[in-house]
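Quick one: C-alpha coordinates for this chain, please?
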Amino acid sequence: MAELSTIARPYADALFEAASDEQASLASWSDLLAELAQVAGLDSVREAMTDPRLDGPQRVELFEALIKTPLSAYARNFIELLVANGRLLLLPQIAEQFEALKNRHDGTAVAQITSAFALSDAQTQEIVAGLEKKFGLKLKPVVTVDASLIGGVRVVVGDQVLDTSVQAQLARMRDTLAA
Protein backbone atom coordinates (compact mmCIF):
# COMPACT_ATOMS: atom_id res chain seq x y z
CA MET A 1 0.00 0.00 0.00
CA ALA A 2 2.92 2.33 0.65
CA GLU A 3 3.77 1.98 -3.03
CA LEU A 4 0.42 3.43 -4.14
CA SER A 5 0.71 6.39 -1.78
CA THR A 6 4.22 7.08 -3.08
CA ILE A 7 2.93 7.16 -6.64
CA ALA A 8 -0.08 9.30 -5.67
CA ARG A 9 1.93 11.90 -3.70
CA PRO A 10 3.25 13.95 -6.68
CA TYR A 11 -0.26 14.22 -8.14
CA ALA A 12 -1.69 15.40 -4.80
CA ASP A 13 1.20 17.88 -4.36
CA ALA A 14 0.80 19.29 -7.88
CA LEU A 15 -2.97 19.58 -7.54
CA PHE A 16 -2.66 21.27 -4.14
CA GLU A 17 -0.15 23.75 -5.53
CA ALA A 18 -2.31 24.47 -8.57
CA ALA A 19 -5.43 24.87 -6.42
CA SER A 20 -3.56 27.29 -4.16
CA ASP A 21 -2.09 29.23 -7.09
CA GLU A 22 -5.35 29.74 -8.95
CA GLN A 23 -7.01 31.10 -5.78
CA ALA A 24 -9.55 28.30 -6.00
CA SER A 25 -11.19 27.20 -2.83
CA LEU A 26 -9.27 24.28 -1.38
CA ALA A 27 -12.53 23.10 0.15
CA SER A 28 -14.21 22.87 -3.27
CA TRP A 29 -11.26 20.90 -4.67
CA SER A 30 -11.38 18.66 -1.61
CA ASP A 31 -15.09 18.00 -2.15
CA LEU A 32 -14.57 17.30 -5.85
CA LEU A 33 -11.67 14.95 -5.15
CA ALA A 34 -13.76 13.09 -2.57
CA GLU A 35 -16.44 12.55 -5.21
CA LEU A 36 -13.90 11.50 -7.86
CA ALA A 37 -12.27 9.10 -5.38
CA GLN A 38 -15.60 7.59 -4.43
CA VAL A 39 -16.46 6.90 -8.08
CA ALA A 40 -12.96 5.61 -8.88
CA GLY A 41 -13.17 3.26 -5.90
CA LEU A 42 -16.23 1.42 -7.21
CA ASP A 43 -15.47 -2.09 -8.45
CA SER A 44 -17.49 -1.66 -11.64
CA VAL A 45 -15.65 1.58 -12.47
CA ARG A 46 -12.27 -0.01 -11.77
CA GLU A 47 -13.20 -2.84 -14.10
CA ALA A 48 -14.38 -0.47 -16.85
CA MET A 49 -11.29 1.75 -16.59
CA THR A 50 -8.98 -1.23 -17.06
CA ASP A 51 -10.89 -2.54 -20.11
CA PRO A 52 -8.33 -2.72 -22.93
CA ARG A 53 -11.02 -1.97 -25.53
CA LEU A 54 -11.29 1.64 -24.30
CA ASP A 55 -8.77 4.24 -25.34
CA GLY A 56 -7.80 7.31 -23.29
CA PRO A 57 -10.46 9.75 -24.56
CA GLN A 58 -13.18 7.12 -24.10
CA ARG A 59 -12.06 6.52 -20.52
CA VAL A 60 -12.13 10.26 -19.80
CA GLU A 61 -15.63 10.60 -21.30
CA LEU A 62 -16.94 7.56 -19.42
CA PHE A 63 -15.47 8.70 -16.11
CA GLU A 64 -16.71 12.26 -16.58
CA ALA A 65 -20.22 10.95 -17.29
CA LEU A 66 -20.21 9.18 -13.91
CA ILE A 67 -19.47 12.38 -11.97
CA LYS A 68 -22.46 14.40 -10.72
CA THR A 69 -20.54 17.66 -10.25
CA PRO A 70 -19.82 19.58 -13.47
CA LEU A 71 -16.07 19.57 -14.04
CA SER A 72 -14.06 22.72 -14.61
CA ALA A 73 -11.42 22.82 -17.34
CA TYR A 74 -8.76 22.29 -14.66
CA ALA A 75 -10.53 19.24 -13.25
CA ARG A 76 -11.01 17.75 -16.73
CA ASN A 77 -7.32 18.33 -17.51
CA PHE A 78 -6.41 16.60 -14.26
CA ILE A 79 -8.54 13.57 -15.17
CA GLU A 80 -7.03 13.51 -18.67
CA LEU A 81 -3.54 13.56 -17.13
CA LEU A 82 -4.40 10.68 -14.80
CA VAL A 83 -5.86 8.64 -17.65
CA ALA A 84 -2.87 9.35 -19.93
CA ASN A 85 -0.49 8.19 -17.20
CA GLY A 86 -2.61 5.20 -16.21
CA ARG A 87 -3.20 6.63 -12.72
CA LEU A 88 -6.96 7.26 -12.65
CA LEU A 89 -7.53 4.43 -10.18
CA LEU A 90 -5.19 6.16 -7.71
CA LEU A 91 -7.81 8.85 -7.06
CA PRO A 92 -8.66 7.53 -3.56
CA GLN A 93 -5.01 7.83 -2.49
CA ILE A 94 -4.62 11.20 -4.23
CA ALA A 95 -7.72 12.53 -2.45
CA GLU A 96 -6.45 11.25 0.89
CA GLN A 97 -3.09 12.97 0.46
CA PHE A 98 -4.70 16.17 -0.84
CA GLU A 99 -6.87 16.23 2.28
CA ALA A 100 -3.79 15.81 4.46
CA LEU A 101 -2.09 18.73 2.67
CA LYS A 102 -5.23 20.85 3.08
CA ASN A 103 -5.43 20.00 6.78
CA ARG A 104 -1.76 20.88 7.28
CA HIS A 105 -2.32 24.18 5.45
CA ASP A 106 -5.34 24.94 7.66
CA GLY A 107 -3.55 23.86 10.86
CA THR A 108 -6.00 21.03 11.43
CA ALA A 109 -5.85 17.24 11.59
CA VAL A 110 -8.26 14.33 11.73
CA ALA A 111 -8.48 12.53 15.06
CA GLN A 112 -9.78 8.99 14.65
CA ILE A 113 -11.24 8.11 18.02
CA THR A 114 -12.20 4.49 18.57
CA SER A 115 -14.08 3.67 21.75
CA ALA A 116 -15.37 0.46 23.28
CA PHE A 117 -18.73 2.16 23.87
CA ALA A 118 -20.64 4.96 22.17
CA LEU A 119 -19.45 8.39 23.32
CA SER A 120 -21.73 11.30 24.06
CA ASP A 121 -21.05 14.65 22.39
CA ALA A 122 -19.78 16.02 25.70
CA GLN A 123 -17.33 13.12 26.11
CA THR A 124 -16.11 13.54 22.54
CA GLN A 125 -15.60 17.27 23.04
CA GLU A 126 -13.70 16.64 26.27
CA ILE A 127 -11.37 14.17 24.54
CA VAL A 128 -10.88 16.52 21.57
CA ALA A 129 -10.11 19.49 23.84
CA GLY A 130 -7.40 17.52 25.63
CA LEU A 131 -5.95 16.27 22.35
CA GLU A 132 -5.93 19.77 20.84
CA LYS A 133 -3.79 20.97 23.75
CA LYS A 134 -1.44 18.02 23.34
CA PHE A 135 -1.01 18.32 19.57
CA GLY A 136 -1.41 22.08 19.18
CA LEU A 137 -3.80 21.56 16.27
CA LYS A 138 -7.49 22.03 15.64
CA LEU A 139 -8.83 18.47 15.43
CA LYS A 140 -11.73 17.06 13.45
CA PRO A 141 -12.98 13.99 15.34
CA VAL A 142 -14.12 10.83 13.59
CA VAL A 143 -15.62 8.56 16.24
CA THR A 144 -16.15 4.82 15.82
CA VAL A 145 -17.13 2.04 18.22
CA ASP A 146 -15.13 -1.20 18.54
CA ALA A 147 -16.32 -3.49 21.35
CA SER A 148 -13.10 -5.55 21.11
CA LEU A 149 -11.30 -2.72 22.95
CA ILE A 150 -13.20 -3.86 26.09
CA GLY A 151 -12.90 -0.36 27.60
CA GLY A 152 -11.10 2.94 27.06
CA VAL A 153 -10.25 4.63 23.77
CA ARG A 154 -7.69 4.48 20.98
CA VAL A 155 -6.87 7.77 19.23
CA VAL A 156 -4.98 8.12 15.96
CA VAL A 157 -3.83 11.58 14.86
CA GLY A 158 -1.66 11.43 11.78
CA ASP A 159 0.99 8.82 12.52
CA GLN A 160 0.66 9.04 16.31
CA VAL A 161 -1.40 6.53 18.28
CA LEU A 162 -2.59 6.98 21.86
CA ASP A 163 -4.04 3.69 23.05
CA THR A 164 -5.58 3.65 26.52
CA SER A 165 -7.88 0.73 25.80
CA VAL A 166 -8.18 -2.23 28.15
CA GLN A 167 -7.20 -4.46 25.22
CA ALA A 168 -3.86 -2.61 24.86
CA GLN A 169 -3.23 -2.71 28.62
CA LEU A 170 -3.86 -6.48 28.67
CA ALA A 171 -1.48 -6.93 25.74
CA ARG A 172 1.24 -4.96 27.56
CA MET A 173 0.72 -7.06 30.70
CA ARG A 174 0.92 -10.26 28.65
CA ASP A 175 4.18 -9.09 27.04
CA THR A 176 5.64 -8.14 30.45
CA LEU A 177 4.73 -11.49 31.96
CA ALA A 178 6.08 -13.41 28.98
CA ALA A 179 9.44 -11.60 29.12
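The mean pLDDT is 92.
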